[in-house]
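Task 17 of the worksheet. Students: predict the tertiary structure of the chain below and write it out as structure tokens. Keep your answer in the requested format; marks are given for formatting as well as content.
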Amino acid sequence: MREYSSSHFDFPGSDGLPGEAAPEKVSDGAASPLHDPHNPTQIGVRSRFYKHALDEAAVVAVTDRKGTIVSVNRKFCDLSGYAREELIGQNHRLLKSGRHDRAFFRELYQTISQGGVWHGEICNRAKNGGLYWVDTTIVPYRGADGEIERFIAIRFDITRQKMAEDRLWHLANFDPLTGLPNRLWFMNAIKGCIHQGLERIAPFAIAMLDLDNFKDINDSLGHAAGDSVLRAVGDRCRAAIRNGDCIARIGGDEFAIIMHDCGDPKMAMERADTLLRAIAPPVHVKDSDRTISASIGIAIFPRDGWDHNELLKCADIALYAVKSNGRARCALFDSEMRQAVLQRARIRADFETALHTGQLRVFYQPIIENGAGSPIAMEALLRWQHPRQGLLSAAAFADALIDESLAARADMFVLRTVIGQIRAWRDAGVPFRSISINATIADFRSPDYVDLIIEAVESGMIDRRDICVEINEDTLLGSQQNEAILQISRLHDAGVGTAFDDFGTGFASLRHLRDIPVDTVKIDKSFIDSVETKPSDCAIVTSVIELAHRLGKKVTAEGVETPAQADILRRLRCDSIQGYLVAPAMDNAMIERFIGHVEA
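Model answer:
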């Protein structure tokens, strides 16, 4: 550690500070007296010159060994706001800002008391209460006996630099919309909690909170309204958490909370329920009150993980489980959830392989009209010939189709297969009315899907009546509905049939039934199952059939399994039925034999 003595620094007497005397002038052209290092007179001149230069450049103070101020320069007074008379004789703690802890000053005093030079940044408090930052070097001065007599502190004002750094830090660590900490801050906070937890076995919980159906607010009311909701939720959560707990907005409509001293699962659930209750009251936005709900997934340290990534993953898994099972509640992570996630990941990976290796098949389920004499129609259904599990229906790999990219590629496979099959059957003289294919919003995000259908019709590959595109009601919700309606209109204009699938189970309104150019309404199986036993379901089915007919649309009942159901639907003048009563889905060879049997 470097030490200074009187031989290194020409230290002032106790009655003054460098810079109080002006340097002697040096005439032009004359030899400077500073150039002779051995002349005693010139040494004094040189010393005064150095002191003056230091005084003009830096904030300087001298204290005794106990920290009592014995001398300050003009810059010190200007920066601190104190007069020299107010500072001399005062302990340097007069300027203490409270921004540094005891350990900071302990290390500082330990260094200089042992004769070492300390360098660092210190925040001080001025006379007016304002804070200022100084880049500080403290040098011990030893007397003739080698003992430390005083300390000289040389400082440079870096307040503007620190303010700029603070602004940058705030921008990097806080969300400008809600004023809450952001993901970066939160991740660092979790790491700090884990470090403390490892040192003193302090359990805590991580809660991941996601707003339910928030996208619908953005889509229906606009992003400004969505921002208002996010601010309101942030304020409510901030007010609802306990003192010492932390909340951050980590992206989109997702918030994260650190709940300290919360290793008990019951306590974690209670705190999460408090957040849900705080969010529940309606939020006034755009002249209306909107009810907001949220889902929360919880992971506990160290029960569920010892590292921040593992804890967040567990909380995310619990959140996904809540979203998949009704939403608007909270759940603790457990090992079964992890297994479910791993299973979904395996299914998606295997399905990706199936797309590339020819494991997918298209099966066809007959649709027959209630009136005799018409050729059958069919619905094309995707099947997976799994190398280990055998033939799988879509329900077995539904998790893979949550990925819109996989769903779009699978739907394109079905479409290409059906177009080829239509052409083959028409060439072979196989009688059928049409084949329906299921489309999702993933198919309408680009025009490629509809382009392929129209191209096949215009090229003569198939007839416009050979194919019908079924859309799910969910396709018409949110921001994607305009694109979906555009593509459905293109099909309608090209003469291609369209149908509402699973009508009555989603959120499509009668306005959609009126305004969307669909030709057929398909009543969901859930209503047909109880059409014999529940008057309410029978009334719904009756009303849908009558309404569709009045709007000039045909009706198909899905999931018909008993003759009694078929009889009721026939009396209600339902146009077509589909289900196990008619036949299950079959591959192309079996459906050909079925058609031959029906025609015979």
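Marker's comment: Residues 33-163 form a domain with the Beta-Lactamase fold (CATH 3.30.450.20). Residues 121 and 135 are 5 Å apart (CA to CA).
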